Automatic annotation (TrEMBL):
Residues 180-196 have a biased composition (Polar residues). This is Tubulin polyglutamylase TTLL4. PROSITE patterns: TTL (PS51221). One of its GO terms (biological process) is microtubule cytoskeleton organization. PANTHER family: TUBULIN MONOGLUTAMYLASE TTLL4, TUBULIN POLYGLUTAMYLASE.
Length: 369
């Protein structure tokens, strides 16, 4: 049996997953060499099996009939048979997460090279997962252009809802009408190329920018990080931190029937699989770990900061930030952990040419940005 799973992914945004369909072959499987050329025996694709005169359609997404079921119908069927369908689903989610992580370095480098703004970079992947005789899931392939054709009421019900949720999840940032009307259109113009029309991420003040780089450097250069160390990333939030957390929670509120599989409160165990650590992965996983049992508290905290304009750098008290850094990530705390403290030196407030980088070169700081 093959299950189809749809997983949208956006650069620097969480991974979501939504179940689709479970498909079976329309002829009874046989390992005999005589059936080797019979596609109806070895392929579960609808485009193949619909040509079989014995193929049976399914018109009801709750029914366990025909050769194509809704995945939730399969889970109900297995549960009635005494099978732990939730355990199977957890294994499938694990496959999706690790598959995305495996491709992350390549995709991330291309995105940085060719994509000007993350708001216009989204992808829908179709995961083909096979369940063997022991109901262990195996990944067969990942389709970069999964079929969205709807040839039956079952397809319309599942894919229609998925497409609606997908567009809401993407949260397209549209250019303003005035900006479009005031500039001549060229063949190269697009939503992604109209810089002045988009709601750009505000540029932080140079002081905040330096503070953000120093903080990233501190959390990405520890040789043996642990949960106690990572949890301190939330002690002092920079404006950029707040923006990322707001975007993450905002997307979560638009998820519809999608389930977010990364980040969650258990995502820390996946960070070791990344080719290199990512600061915002650390940030959002720690945020989830801290507030997953009390989402309202976390949201209220973000609202409070946004009302004050902290996410745009407004109201940022750099002196207070330095003081908090020394108190919470200062010498006493870090000596207990056997680490060098992160702090913004006093020279941070002097001329830019005299700012100390806490041991990091300008090239290293640029790479972190």
């Amino acid at each position: 049996m093959r299950t189809e799973l749809l997983a949208p992914w956006a650069w620097r945004q969480p991974v979501q997953a939504q179940t689709a369909c479970a498909a079976t072959i329309s002829y009874r499987y046989s390992s005999s060499m005589k059936s080797l050329s019979n596609k109806f025996v070895h392929l579960t694709n609808y485009s193949v099996n619909k040509k079989n005169t014995e193929y049976k359609s399914n018109l009801d997404e709750t029914a366990c009939q025909g050769h194509k079921w809704a995945l939730k119908a399969l889970w109900n069927y297995l549960t009635q048979k005494g099978v732990n369908s939730e355990a199977i689903w957890e294994k499938i989610k694990d496959i999706v997460i690790k598959t995305i992580i495996a491709s992350e370095p390549y995709v991330n480098s291309l995105v940085k090279m060719y994509v000007r703004r993350p708001y216009c970079c989204h992808e829908l992947f179709g995961f083909d997962i096979m369940l063997d005789e022991n109901l262990k899931p195996w990944i067969l392939e990942v389709n970069i252009s999964p079929s969205l054709h709807s040839n039956s009421p079952l397809d319309v019900s599942i894919k229609g809802q998925m497409i609606r949720d997908l567009l809401n999840l993407a949260g397209f940032v549209l250019p303003s009408t005035d900006s479009i009307a005031s500039r001549p259109q060229t063949r190269s113009d697009s939503t992604c190329s109209q810089g002045s029309a988009l709601k750009e991420k505000p540029r932080p003040a140079s002081e905040c920018f330096t503070a953000e780089k120093l903080k990233k450097a501190y959390y990405l250069t520890q040789k043996i990080p642990d949960q106690d160390f990572y949890s301190s990333v939330l002690d002092i939030l920079t404006p950029d931190d707040v923006r990322i957390l707001v975007e993450t929670e905002d997307e979560y509120s638009r998820r519809g029937q999608f389930e977010r599989v990364f980040p969650t409160h258990v995502s820390m165990r996946y960070l070791r699989f990344f080719e290199q650590p990512r600061y915002f992965n650390i940030l959002v996983t720690q945020w989830e770990l801290k507030y997953y049992l009390n989402k309202h508290k976390g949201l209220e905290l973000l609202k409070k900061w946004c009302v004050k304009g902290y996410h745009n750098g407004a109201g940022t008290d750099l002196a207070q930030m330095v003081s908090m850094a020394m108190d919470k990530l200062g010498k006493g705390c870090c000596e207990e952990r056997g680490r060098e403290p992160w702090s913004l030196p006093k020279s941070f407030f002097l001329q830019k040419s005299r700012v100390q980088s806490n041991g990091f070169s300008k090239l290293e700081l640029d790479r972190l940005g």
